[in-house]
Amino acid sequence: MFEHKPQPGWIAVEEYLTEAVVHPNGSLQRAVQSAVDAGMPPIEVAPNAGKLLKLLVQMSGARRVLEIGTLAGFSTIWMAQGLPDDGRLVTCEYLPKHADVARSNLDAAGVGHKVDIRIGAALDSLAALEAEGHEPFDFVFIDADKENDSRYLDWAVRLGRPGATVILDNAVWEGAVLEPSLDPVNAPGIIGALELLGSHPKLDATVIQTVGSKGWDGFALAVIR
Ligand code: SAH
Ligand code: DHB
Ligand code: MG
Fold it and tell me: Is the dihedral of CA 62, 194, 162, 133 positive or negative?
């Protein structure tokens, strides 16, 4: 959908920062390659953003993490690496094939024992987590179908504890948040989520714009009051 290609300078700097500072381990690099080999779309978070997720999990002392949108498990591995050994992560993925690739990547990365992959439409999996009386989550990462972003935010508030961290990927979408006609399928969902982040009585939020290998985009961060 992106109109503009990421600028070469952004990518070169991102590669430099990844090499100099971020240091994704071998299992993370293999997870990216596994997705390419399986013909999956290359839409995982960039390594510097994945490392941010890991550090935020660590900094917040999270022990229960919820992810919506697994793909090949790249962001999942990063967050699981930020959890203590007895920490747990539930990740929701619609496509069984993606879940299979993710399962083998998570096991190969040595974090498989921390991760429960729920296959199916995330809205159903989230309702099931509530019905099961799942322990409240400390950290929620939303990165699936953008049309449902507002619904996922509502679920994050329902399933997260007060003080929990909520992160929403793809919050700027090449500027389509100001020009929804650029992407009539996804932009309205993202705009709705931004409006909710700015107005929800239980959320206190900001958005950081990003540029790099994934183009011009952003990370929304919120805390549940
Ligand atoms: N978080 C991943 C990238 C996720 S890409 C990473 O950074 O590594 C988005 C994923 O959401 C895809 O795997 C897609 O199949 C999944 N998805 C799309 N719609 C969904 C839905 N309704 N329920 C659950 N998963 C969905
Ligand atoms: C797409 C989805 C993502 O979650 C992302 O980070 C980048 C791109 C996409 O569907 O194009
Ligand atoms: Mg994303």
Answer: negative
